[in-house]
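Request: Have a read of the protein record below and say how the chain folds.
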Amino acid sequence: MPVLRLTRPVAAAAFALLTAAALAGCSMGGGGGGGSSAALHPGLSARMDQPGASLDRARALSIVNAYRATNGIAPLTPDTGLDGTARALANQYAQTGTPPKTPQGLRVMKLSAGYATFAETFSGWRNNPADAAGLTSAGGKAGVAMAFNPASSYGVYWVSVVGD
């Protein structure tokens, strides 16, 4: 039986189409009780724009790693220390409304504000050339966090950091 081999551009296009379909299904709603798409894990489509919301960091990093894989780049390992750094930066961002500067020793920091779900945030990063380059940058471990401040301009603030 022949084996199907995909070139990197074809694999990247296939991933982009599958992700777009999953995100489209998520954003279409389902009428009624805010159902989520079966194609997208609830941890990625859970709304963070409410008190007590909790980000599924493992799922968030898994979508970043899937994107990295389509580009032939090794996955990032979750790191609790970098999660703490991302959390502190997200809280600072949510309280001040001012984007924080990248702390010394980090390779990359990605920021976003206003998106209610990680799926929306990731889509924004992936579709911006500078942010997409950051998602595929060198590094071995990562942290991701969000902070919610209902009294702020954007409500939800996202930070992803990559280190060695």
Remarks:
- The first strand starts at residue 77 and ends at 78.
- The first helix runs from residue 8 to 27.
